[in-house]
């Protein structure tokens, strides 16, 4: 039996590697403590720390690894978002629309994978019916999102 797995989606473009992985590291630690596996789209890509701000087109780093080419990013992220048990997407405070996260939400929704989204109650750049209607649980904090994910993962309770 495969371990319960959560895919950690959220903005990357326009952020540094550390800026895109900070909340993911916190989520991973808390999920690990609960015996839940998490997948970051930036795993095995620590070399991106040297790039600075990550771009939409992977300019300057697509050649660094097969995982950081546009095709490599697309294929692995699609695979992760469609084979996990839950997708946790953190859109809180997004400075721009995360096109990749929107795709990941749609892929998960299409596969009937629960989508837990962290967003402001209102006014988030992703507040569009084509996005919000695919979100199963909308919460306003990472802690609340992790509580929801853990509850979904815990099938031992009556």
Detailed description of the structure:
- The chain is α/β, with parallel strands linked by helices and 158 residues long.
- It has one domain (5-153): Rossmann fold (3-Layer(aba) Sandwich), CATH 3.40.50.450.
- 37% of the residues lie in helices and 13% in strands.
- It has helices spanning 17-33, 70-83, 99-110, 129-132, 142-153, and strands at residues 5-9, 37-39, 86-90, 115-118, 137-139.
- Strands 2-1-3-4-5 form a five-stranded parallel β-sheet, sandwiched between helices.
- Helix 1 links the parallel strand 1 and strand 2 (37-39).
- Helix 2 (70-83) packs parallel to helix 3 (99-110).
* DSSP summary: helix tally: 5
Which structural class should the secondary elements be placed in?
alpha/beta
Give the total of domains: 1
Mean pLDDT: 93
How would you characterize the largest beta sheet?
Answer: 5 strands, parallel
């Amino acid at each position: 039996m495969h371990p319960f797995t959560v895919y950690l989606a959220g903005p990357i473009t326009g952020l540094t590697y550390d800026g895109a992985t900070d909340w993911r590291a916190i989520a991973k630690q808390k999920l690990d403590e609960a015996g839940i596996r998490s997948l970051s789209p930036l795993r095995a890509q620590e070399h991106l720390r040297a790039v600075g701000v990550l771009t939409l087109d992977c300019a300057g780093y697509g050649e660094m690894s097969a995982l950081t080419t546009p095709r490599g990013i697309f294929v692995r992220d699609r695979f992760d978002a469609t084979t996990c048990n839950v997708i946790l997407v953190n859109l809180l405070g997004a400075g721009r629309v995360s096109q990749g996260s929107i795709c990941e939400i749609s892929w998960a929704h299409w596969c009937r994978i629960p989508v837990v989204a962290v967003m402001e109650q209102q006014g988030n750049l992703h507040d569009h019916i084509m996005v919000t209607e695919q979100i199963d649980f909308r919460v306003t904090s990472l802690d609340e999102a992790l509580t929801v994910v853990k509850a979904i993962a815990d099938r031992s309770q009556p």
